Amino acid sequence: SQTIHQWPATLVQPVGSPLSLECTVEGTSNPNLYWYRQAAGRGLQLLFYSVGIGQISSEVPQNLSASRPQDRQFILSSKKLLLSDSGFYLCAWRQGDGGYTFGSGTRLTVV
Amino acid sequence: DAKTTQPTSMDCAEGRAANLPCNHSTISGNEYVYWYRQIHSQGPQYIIHGLKNNETNEMASLIITEDRKSSTLILPHATLRDTAVYYCIVPNYGQNFVFGPGTRLSVLP
After folding, report:
1. Distances from the Cα of A61 to the Cα of A19, A30, B6, angstroms
2. Where in chain A does DSSP place strands (E)?
3. Is the pLDDT of residue B41 over 90?
4. For B63-79, what is each residue's pLDDT tens digit?
5. Tell me: the pLDDT tens digits for B90-107?
6. According to the model, what pLDDT value does residue A59 have?
7. Which among A49, A101, A105 is the nearest to B46, CB-wise?
8. Alpha-carbon distance A101 to A34, whole Å?
9. Chain B residue with minimal CA distance to A6?
10. What pLDDT does residue B86 have?
11. Which of A32, A36, A44 to mutate: most B Cβ within 10 Å?
């Protein structure tokens, strides 16, 4: 069966520090991968998606970047965090035109 | 995505059926209706999806009107653990999912 792993579950980082969030998927190959962010009390905002290794599409310009070094690995990064980067970050995968499966999320607080 | 409209919030008594409506009047013939829910501080969870026929699984039932312009998600016996935000999504074929504000369902004891 397919599983998706996200870590860490929570993270507190100072302003200006770097960020690296990792997401891995097991039990599937060539999935579409997604990073969403949810600010406190707000809806889900699609940040990046990837249809294959090295292929990244950005939905909104921001202080973040994404990479897909392996088929089932998706990484969200920042060189210098801003206070506005705080939020709940969710990774998801999708096979073909099926539904999305989400990870358990990372709650990031920038202080 | 085809535009969806959901009530902002709803209450339901524990043990009763929760009926969550969604309007999607601009849906086209090959677009599915998906329902997800998000319990506080968790990732969204898939519930059910359908094209034109009514669907039922272990979590819920999905009733789609004959003209496909609206649907209703039914939780037959709501429990306190069903308190969550419920999202109705109608993605354009091959396009990414867009999550709107959803309906905040509160199941009351």
Report:
1. 17, 26, 29
2. 3-7, 10-13, 19-26, 32-38, 44-52, 55-58, 65-70, 73-78, 87-94, 100-102, 106-110
3. no
4. 999 999 999 999 999 99
5. 987 667 888 889 999 999
6. 85
7. A101
8. 10
9. B43
10. 97
11. A44
Residue type, position A41, single letter = G
Tokens of B56: 């039922």
Q: Cα(A23)–Cα(B45) distance, rounded to whole angstroms?
A: 17
For residue B19 the two structure tokens come to: 């009926």
Pick from A49, A59, A105: CB nearest B43: A105
Helix (H, G, I), strand (E, B) or coil at B11: strand
B chain contacts of residue A43, beta-carbon cutoff 8 Å: 99-102
Residues B46 and B60: their CA atoms lie apart, in Å, by: 11
